[in-house]
Every structure is written in structure tokens, then in C-alpha cells.
Amino acid sequence: MTLWFVFALMTVAAIFAVLWPLSRRGRTDTGGSEVVVYRDQLAEIDRDMAAGIIGAAEADAARIEISRRLLAAADQSGRETPVQGSLTLRRAAAIVALVGLPVIASSFYLALGSPRLGDFPLAERSRVADANQPLANLVAQVEAHLEKNPTDGRGWTVLAPVLSRLGRYDDAVRAYRNAITYAGDSADRRADLGEAMIGTAGGVVTAEAKAEFERAIALNGDDAKANYFLGLAAEQDGRKADAAALWQKMLAKAPSDAPWRPLVQAALVRVGGVSAPALPDGAMAAAKDMSEADRGTMIQGMVDRLATRLKTNGDDVEGWLRLVRAYLVMGERDKAMSALADARQAVANDADRLRQLNEGLKNLGLDG
User: Fold this and answer.
1) Distance of CA 367 to CAs 190, 211, 314, Å?
2) What is the pLDDT of residues 188-208, one digit of tens each?
3) Are residues 229 and 213 in contact, defined by beta-carbon separation less than 8 angstroms?
4) pLDDT score of 106 more than 50
5) How far is the C-alpha of 305 from the C-alpha of 299, rounded, in Å?
6) Who is most buried in 45, 46, 219, 321, counting CB within 10 A?
7) Residue pLDDT, tens place only, 232-280
8) Is residue 348 helix, strand or coil?
9) Contact 287, 295 (CB under 8 A)
10) Dihedral angle at the C-alpha atoms of 200, 205, 211, 215, nearest 10 degrees?
11) What is the C-alpha separation between 333 and 341, in angstroms, rounded?
12) Cβ atoms of 209 and 197 closer than 8 Å
């Protein structure tokens, strides 16, 4: 309130500074004062001549010059009439300006501004978000903002996945629900909500979570997260064949570089589904006309060649991940674990490659 009061005083002062000259009566023209001065000079000449200070000839010359100036001044004074505006009209204009300007400004602010926006104290304005401060502190700041602005859909959308990563699944569920309410419904938000519900249930796909995944599929039939967790729900219900069919359908439709493909392939191996390592396009075309035995032989040969190449070029992280995945798909878990150990040994001295390898193995469900 103090700030607005100061702004109001400044506005009134600025208006008065402009309108004050208009509120005063116009001064009468001073042209007549020159006539009086010249007449006084004529009288002074007469006094000087009477006192013998100047002669008659000098007095006549001075009278002629002063009379000429007197006539010119009198003529100018007669032709120029001071222009004076109506004092009442000027005062009315001042009142209209004093009242009208604030009313017009307020109307524009109510239409275009944010009069209901909460205060932003100086302490908070000077508090710049620091990327180096703990994530929990940043989350607390966002939560404090959302307590004052509970309808901020964008804020809930940003906060929800962070809460999930922090393991605060109950809070994440509430944040996702608010994001859907205030930012709009979508397949991604429904699938994320279902995943947070699984977190609250300790990894179990509950009926409530399954309902959210089904809503996501209704919005987008190809949503990868929703399809994966619906397959997981089938697996947890003991319907492994249904889970395998759903995951096989996902792999058949997905691009070869889909980031979630290794996770689904590992899940498919877990339920005993039939799958094969990804093959080059030419090999895929050739394998279509082969018998199951011949196709298996061809795949085994490709895997063996990949394993041989990696023994001489152990820096190929993607190659190691393909080899481990292939062994898992083929049901040869011992070979997969052996390849895993060889891969870690090969990239042990390269921190970036080791991190990339560990992330890929985690996607395959091999954390250890």
C-alpha cells in the first residue's frame, strides 16, 4: 500500500506541474508601460532645459526622437490585445485531468494487468535460484510458490516428476492430479500418474494405477509407458502370455532406436517370450524365408562375430550392450553375465564409457 500511495502522490504532482500555469490568470500586456516611460522622459527634458542643463536645440532634437518612440509604442499597444483564456474552462480541464487520468490508467490496468497477483517481497526477489543448491531446497521453493498459487498448472507439471525422482510418490501423485486438473489431460500425464501410484505401492501395478494407464491408452494408443506397465500388470497377474504379446507388439511397432526398447526386451525375456536380437535390415529380409532352426543359426553366428569383434575393440559400449541383450534374449544368462564382466573390464579406465555402460545395463535390468 505504501508503494501505491507514493505512486499516486507522484502522479498528482506531475499533473499539477503541468496544469498549474493554466489555472492562473493571464497577465496584462506591459506594452503600456513604455508609453509612460517616454512621457516621463519628455517631462524630464523640459525640466533640464528650464534648469539650463541643455540648450533649446538639443531639447528639440531629444523631444523629436522621444516623440517618435512614443508614437511607435502607443501604436503597438493599441494593436496588440492580450489573449486571455477562460479561467473557468482551464480549471475544468484541470479537474478532468486529475480525475480522468487515474480512471483511464486504472481501467487499462484492470484489463491488461494482474491486480490479484500476490506480493513478491524484496527478500524473495533478491533470492536467485542457484543450480548448485540442494534439489530439496529448490523443490521447497516451488512448493511454497504453489501453496500461494494452487492453480498454477505449469508449476505442478514441473514439480511432479521431480517428486517422483526423490521417491516422494504420495506427493507426486497429488502433483500429477493437480497438473491434469489445471494444465489439461494428456496420455503422458496419465501414464506418469500411474507410474507414481506404482511407486506408492512398492512396485505393484494396482487397479487404480492400471485404470490410469488405460486412460492414457484411450488418449494415445501408442504411449510406450502405459503399454509397458499394462504388460507388467498382466505379468503380475500371472498372465505372462498376455504380457509377452503386448510387449512383442510394442517392439514390432517401435523404431530401432527407441530408448525403452532394451527394457521391454529384457522384460520379454523374463516372461519367456519369443524374441530375437535386433538384426540389420538385410539380415531381417533374408531371415523371413528361413526355417526357425536356420534363423537361430544365423542369429547365433552374428552374436559370435559380435563377441569376437568386441574382444579386439572393447571401447564399443553399444556393441557390449547389444551382445548382453542378445544373450539374454537367447536365454543364455551365464554368457550375458560373462559379457557384462568383460565389458566393465574393457572400459574401466574410461569414466564416460563406464557410466554409459552402467546406464545401459540398468535399462536391461542388470544393476549388479
Assistant:
1) 28, 30, 20
2) 999 999 999 999 998 899 999
3) yes
4) yes
5) 10
6) 321
7) 999 999 998 899 889 888 887 888 788 888 888 888 878 875 444 554 5
8) coil
9) yes
10) 90
11) 12
12) yes
Contacts of 219 (CB under 8 A, 6+ apart): 185, 186, 187, 190
pLDDT, tens digit (0-9, with 9 covering 90-100), for 302-325:
888 888 888 888 888 888 888 887
Set of cell numbers at residue 100: 480522468
| Predicted TM-score of the model (pTM) | 0.45
Which range, of 32-46, 194-208, 279-293, averages the lowest pLDDT? 279-293
Tell me how crowded residue 68 is: count the other CB atoms within 10 A of its CB.
11
Other Cβ atoms within 10 Å of 236 Cβ, number: 15
Residue 200's H or E segment, with its range, is helix 187-200
pLDDT of residue 252: 78
Q: In terms of Cα–Cα distance, which of 319, 332, 330 is closest to 360?
A: 319
Round to whole Å and give the CA distance between 123 and 101: 33
In angstroms, the CA 239 to CA 203 distance is: 17
Which residue carries 556393441 as its cell? 319
Distance CA 197, CA 209 (A): 6
Cα–Cα distance measured from residue 63 to residue 167, given in angstroms and rounded to the nearest whole number: 109
- Alpha helices, DSSP H, located in 206-350: 207-219, 224-236, 240-253, 261-270, 281-287, 292-312, 317-329, 333-346
What's 113's DSSP letter?
A: S
* Nearest partner of 274 among 265, 262, 285, 263, judged by Cα: 265
The single-letter code of the amino acid at 190 is: R
CA nearest to 137, candidates 100, 166, 107: 166
